[in-house]
Amino acid sequence: MPAEKTVDSPPHRRTQAERVAESDTRMLQAAMGLVATRGYAQTTLEAIGTESGYSRGLVSHRWGTKDKLLEALVDRVLEDFRVGLLERLRGLTGLDALFCEIDCYLEGMDDPPLSSRAFFVLMLESIGPAPQIREHFARFSKKWQASLARTIAKGQQLGSIRADVKPADEARLLIATLRGLRTQSMLDPASSDIARDIAALKATLTQRLAP
Protein backbone atom coordinates (compact mmCIF):
# COMPACT_ATOMS: atom_id res chain seq x y z
CA MET A 1 0.00 0.00 0.00
CA PRO A 2 1.63 3.29 -1.07
CA ALA A 3 2.51 5.74 1.64
CA GLU A 4 0.25 8.71 1.92
CA LYS A 5 1.72 11.90 0.64
CA THR A 6 2.03 14.72 3.10
CA VAL A 7 1.34 18.21 2.03
CA ASP A 8 3.84 20.69 3.40
CA SER A 9 2.27 23.82 4.79
CA PRO A 10 3.38 26.91 2.96
CA PRO A 11 6.13 28.90 4.70
CA HIS A 12 4.96 31.73 6.88
CA ARG A 13 5.08 34.97 4.97
CA ARG A 14 5.91 37.79 7.32
CA THR A 15 3.65 40.77 7.35
CA GLN A 16 4.89 44.28 6.73
CA ALA A 17 4.48 45.03 10.44
CA GLU A 18 6.66 42.03 11.35
CA ARG A 19 9.38 43.10 8.93
CA VAL A 20 9.32 46.64 10.29
CA ALA A 21 9.51 45.40 13.88
CA GLU A 22 12.47 43.16 13.05
CA SER A 23 14.39 45.90 11.27
CA ASP A 24 13.66 48.36 14.09
CA THR A 25 15.00 45.90 16.65
CA ARG A 26 18.15 45.23 14.62
CA MET A 27 18.84 48.94 14.17
CA LEU A 28 18.26 49.68 17.86
CA GLN A 29 20.53 46.78 18.85
CA ALA A 30 23.21 48.14 16.53
CA ALA A 31 22.83 51.61 18.04
CA MET A 32 23.08 50.11 21.52
CA GLY A 33 26.38 48.41 20.75
CA LEU A 34 27.84 51.49 19.10
CA VAL A 35 26.84 53.83 21.94
CA ALA A 36 28.20 51.44 24.56
CA THR A 37 31.59 51.19 22.85
CA ARG A 38 32.00 54.49 20.99
CA GLY A 39 29.78 57.00 22.74
CA TYR A 40 27.29 59.50 21.39
CA ALA A 41 29.52 61.45 18.99
CA GLN A 42 30.85 58.41 17.16
CA THR A 43 27.45 56.78 16.79
CA THR A 44 26.22 57.98 13.41
CA LEU A 45 23.18 57.00 11.37
CA GLU A 46 25.53 55.61 8.73
CA ALA A 47 27.36 53.46 11.30
CA ILE A 48 24.04 52.18 12.68
CA GLY A 49 22.87 51.27 9.18
CA THR A 50 26.11 49.46 8.39
CA GLU A 51 26.19 47.61 11.72
CA SER A 52 22.57 46.48 11.40
CA GLY A 53 22.82 45.48 7.74
CA TYR A 54 20.55 48.23 6.47
CA SER A 55 21.15 51.54 4.74
CA ARG A 56 21.65 54.92 6.38
CA GLY A 57 18.58 56.00 4.44
CA LEU A 58 16.36 53.44 6.18
CA VAL A 59 17.62 54.47 9.62
CA SER A 60 16.96 58.11 8.77
CA HIS A 61 13.53 57.27 7.34
CA ARG A 62 12.43 55.48 10.54
CA TRP A 63 13.64 58.05 13.09
CA GLY A 64 14.59 61.18 11.22
CA THR A 65 17.55 62.16 13.41
CA LYS A 66 20.13 60.44 15.55
CA ASP A 67 18.70 62.04 18.68
CA LYS A 68 15.23 60.65 17.97
CA LEU A 69 16.69 57.20 17.41
CA LEU A 70 18.64 57.35 20.67
CA GLU A 71 15.54 58.51 22.53
CA ALA A 72 13.77 55.45 21.13
CA LEU A 73 16.69 53.32 22.32
CA VAL A 74 16.43 54.73 25.84
CA ASP A 75 12.67 54.13 25.81
CA ARG A 76 13.20 50.50 24.74
CA VAL A 77 15.70 49.88 27.54
CA LEU A 78 13.41 51.53 30.10
CA GLU A 79 10.35 49.61 28.94
CA ASP A 80 12.18 46.27 29.19
CA PHE A 81 13.29 47.21 32.70
CA ARG A 82 9.79 48.37 33.69
CA VAL A 83 8.15 45.13 32.56
CA GLY A 84 10.59 43.03 34.59
CA LEU A 85 10.29 45.29 37.61
CA LEU A 86 6.48 45.28 37.69
CA GLU A 87 6.45 41.50 37.55
CA ARG A 88 8.76 41.24 40.57
CA LEU A 89 7.02 44.04 42.48
CA ARG A 90 3.64 42.32 42.41
CA GLY A 91 2.20 42.17 45.93
CA LEU A 92 5.11 44.00 47.59
CA THR A 93 4.80 47.17 49.67
CA GLY A 94 6.94 49.37 51.89
CA LEU A 95 10.55 48.37 52.43
CA ASP A 96 10.05 45.09 50.55
CA ALA A 97 9.05 47.06 47.45
CA LEU A 98 12.05 49.39 47.83
CA PHE A 99 14.34 46.40 48.25
CA CYS A 100 12.91 44.92 45.05
CA GLU A 101 13.70 48.17 43.21
CA ILE A 102 17.27 47.99 44.51
CA ASP A 103 17.67 44.39 43.37
CA CYS A 104 16.28 45.05 39.91
CA TYR A 105 18.46 48.11 39.39
CA LEU A 106 21.75 46.73 40.71
CA GLU A 107 21.74 42.98 40.19
CA GLY A 108 24.32 41.86 37.63
CA MET A 109 26.14 45.19 37.56
CA ASP A 110 29.52 43.57 38.24
CA ASP A 111 29.19 42.46 34.62
CA PRO A 112 26.68 44.97 33.20
CA PRO A 113 24.76 44.07 30.04
CA LEU A 114 25.22 46.08 26.87
CA SER A 115 21.92 47.86 27.38
CA SER A 116 23.02 49.15 30.78
CA ARG A 117 26.34 50.44 29.48
CA ALA A 118 24.63 52.19 26.55
CA PHE A 119 22.01 53.74 28.83
CA PHE A 120 24.59 55.15 31.22
CA VAL A 121 26.87 56.42 28.45
CA LEU A 122 23.94 58.39 27.03
CA MET A 123 22.81 59.65 30.43
CA LEU A 124 26.28 60.90 31.33
CA GLU A 125 26.84 62.43 27.90
CA SER A 126 23.48 64.23 28.16
CA ILE A 127 25.11 66.53 30.73
CA GLY A 128 28.11 67.01 28.46
CA PRO A 129 28.41 66.68 24.68
CA ALA A 130 24.76 65.74 24.07
CA PRO A 131 22.62 68.21 26.07
CA GLN A 132 19.81 67.92 23.53
CA ILE A 133 18.78 64.54 24.98
CA ARG A 134 19.07 65.64 28.62
CA GLU A 135 15.37 66.46 28.94
CA HIS A 136 14.52 62.87 27.98
CA PHE A 137 16.45 61.59 30.99
CA ALA A 138 15.08 64.36 33.22
CA ARG A 139 11.49 63.30 32.45
CA PHE A 140 12.29 59.69 33.27
CA SER A 141 13.94 60.72 36.55
CA LYS A 142 10.87 62.71 37.61
CA LYS A 143 8.59 59.75 36.89
CA TRP A 144 10.86 57.35 38.79
CA GLN A 145 11.11 59.69 41.78
CA ALA A 146 7.33 60.10 41.87
CA SER A 147 6.86 56.32 41.72
CA LEU A 148 9.29 55.69 44.59
CA ALA A 149 7.70 58.47 46.63
CA ARG A 150 4.30 56.81 46.20
CA THR A 151 5.77 53.51 47.36
CA ILE A 152 7.19 55.18 50.47
CA ALA A 153 3.94 57.05 51.20
CA LYS A 154 1.96 53.83 50.89
CA GLY A 155 4.38 52.15 53.28
CA GLN A 156 3.77 54.96 55.74
CA GLN A 157 0.01 54.45 55.47
CA LEU A 158 0.48 50.74 56.16
CA GLY A 159 2.78 51.42 59.10
CA SER A 160 5.86 49.70 57.62
CA ILE A 161 7.79 52.96 57.03
CA ARG A 162 8.33 55.78 59.52
CA ALA A 163 5.66 58.45 59.36
CA ASP A 164 8.10 61.35 59.85
CA VAL A 165 10.20 60.89 56.68
CA LYS A 166 9.50 62.87 53.52
CA PRO A 167 8.75 60.48 50.63
CA ALA A 168 10.01 62.80 47.87
CA ASP A 169 13.32 63.45 49.65
CA GLU A 170 13.91 59.76 50.38
CA ALA A 171 13.07 58.84 46.79
CA ARG A 172 15.57 61.36 45.41
CA LEU A 173 18.32 60.13 47.75
CA LEU A 174 17.67 56.51 46.83
CA ILE A 175 17.88 57.24 43.10
CA ALA A 176 21.14 59.14 43.60
CA THR A 177 22.60 56.25 45.59
CA LEU A 178 21.54 53.63 43.06
CA ARG A 179 22.98 55.58 40.16
CA GLY A 180 26.19 56.24 42.06
CA LEU A 181 26.71 52.56 42.85
CA ARG A 182 25.94 51.54 39.28
CA THR A 183 28.30 54.13 37.83
CA GLN A 184 31.07 53.20 40.25
CA SER A 185 30.76 49.54 39.32
CA MET A 186 31.36 50.43 35.67
CA LEU A 187 34.18 52.89 36.42
CA ASP A 188 36.12 50.43 38.58
CA PRO A 189 34.80 46.91 37.93
CA ALA A 190 37.84 45.29 39.56
CA SER A 191 36.85 46.57 42.99
CA SER A 192 33.10 46.30 42.51
CA ASP A 193 31.07 43.97 44.68
CA ILE A 194 27.43 44.67 43.91
CA ALA A 195 26.09 41.93 46.21
CA ARG A 196 27.91 43.56 49.15
CA ASP A 197 26.68 47.01 48.16
CA ILE A 198 23.07 45.81 47.85
CA ALA A 199 23.20 44.30 51.34
CA ALA A 200 24.74 47.48 52.80
CA LEU A 201 22.17 49.73 51.13
CA LYS A 202 19.27 47.63 52.37
CA ALA A 203 20.68 47.68 55.91
CA THR A 204 21.03 51.47 55.78
CA LEU A 205 17.49 51.91 54.45
CA THR A 206 16.12 49.68 57.19
CA GLN A 207 17.83 51.81 59.84
CA ARG A 208 16.53 55.03 58.25
CA LEU A 209 13.00 54.07 57.33
CA ALA A 210 11.79 51.21 59.51
CA PRO A 211 9.43 52.29 62.34
Automatic annotation (TrEMBL):
PANTHER family per UniProt: HTH-TYPE TRANSCRIPTIONAL REPRESSOR NEMR (PTHR47506:SF6), TRANSCRIPTIONAL REGULATORY PROTEIN (PTHR47506)
Domain HTH tetR-type: 21-81
DNA-binding residue intervals: 44-63
Keywords noted in UniProt: DNA-binding, Repressor, Transcription, Transcription regulation
InterPro entries registered for this protein in UniProt: BetI_C (IPR039538), Homeodomain-like_sf (IPR009057), HTH_TetR (IPR001647), Tet_transcr_reg_TetR-rel_C_sf (IPR036271)
Protein name: TetR/AcrR family transcriptional regulator
Span list, region Disordered: 1-22
